[in-house]
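We modelled the chain as a single entity of 427 amino acids. Its sequence is:
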Amino acid sequence: MLTLVTEETFSCPVCLDILNDAIEVDCCQALLCLECAKRCGGGCPTCRRQPLKYRANIPIRRIVLELKESCEQCGEIVLLSERKEHLRNSCPEVMVSCGDCLETMKRRQIDQHAGYCAKQPVICSDCEEEMERGEVFAHQEQTCPNRQVVCGTCRHSILVSEFHNHSKTCPQAIVSCEFCKQDMKRSQLAGHEKSCLQALVKCRHCAREMRRNDLLDHESSCTKNNASKIVCEECGVTVGRKKLANHLANKCQQRMVDCLECGQAVVLVEMKIHSKEQCENRLTECVFCKKKVVFNDREAHWDDFCDQTPVWCDDCLKLIPRSDVWQHKFECPGYNNKPSPPQLNLDDMVMCRHRRCDYKVRRDSLEEHEKKCVYRPIKCSPCGQLIPRFYMGFHEEYCDGSDDDFDFTIDALADDYQGPQCPEYSD
């Protein structure tokens, strides 16, 4: 008659585990682990006889080393003697804890979880400071010393540590000519001073200093000017004295002309390079959607209109295109355990969520309306206040970076304030 061999057949009666280095006692032929026999105090643990004498059971040791069974968790066939080691270190179905956030999951999920664990230490790509992954977004937006901020005047992105110095050199800042006191952009000042009629210049013949608008009359009668022709000081071309004024106004290749797009004064021979590489109003290609946009408006395009602009997923903290946000919610590993969104009727009329805007729109048009809403709050980079969109242009013109001079923020709007009506008002 065949006897069924089970795990209990090769179990130690002391530790109740699989025999490890099996020995056989002389008194009752019981099988024990070698270590268990040494801990029994000199007596047999099964029949209580003393002294305990035993010998190694080589055949049983060989059998135990070759026994196999199916893992109760993952179904993998493993040696019986290695079962505990398998469950402790390699079984993919055993529940383990994340070493960072202590969340419990199956071992096969731990590598995927490590890709978006909010408690996992990561390095900020800008300042190389170590922090938890869940703190990276707030750090890069608010406290990182190497974060980028947008200048409210020229709309260029600059390091926050350089913002104070940038305000002194911003090419779009309004400055005054020291000679004629005319206000203009800083980028136009150098070109303006070369042609400003009130600027002080010296006569090339007698070195007398005078205003530019008096120079031509002076040189025509200067007692030290005996030449019938003179050299244009701008381009070096020799022209007749009487034709100099016409040459400077219409023919000189070094004369200053205004860019038709941005109005900046540029040397004529440099206009081609300016139009292609320097003009703030030139057309350029969006780095995300490849559409043509005005260079100075690219930041607004990325914020409000570009459907390929990368945005942060709040659940897995990854950057994804704005157009893929909804689809990403169904694939996001951090979103799968959240309840499904309620089914909404897209034909319902809902109120705009921006304060002071009483406009009602269809639910499927709400997102598009709120992007263009004149009461949409926009953060001013210099002073950090939230300003209504319709007031942002006036605010930027006079904002000096302090939040003390203006009290026209979203929170400061009085309940009876009569602002522009949405959506007829346009800025």
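As a brief sanity check on the tokenised model: The chain has 14 helices and 27 strands. The radius of gyration is 41 Å.
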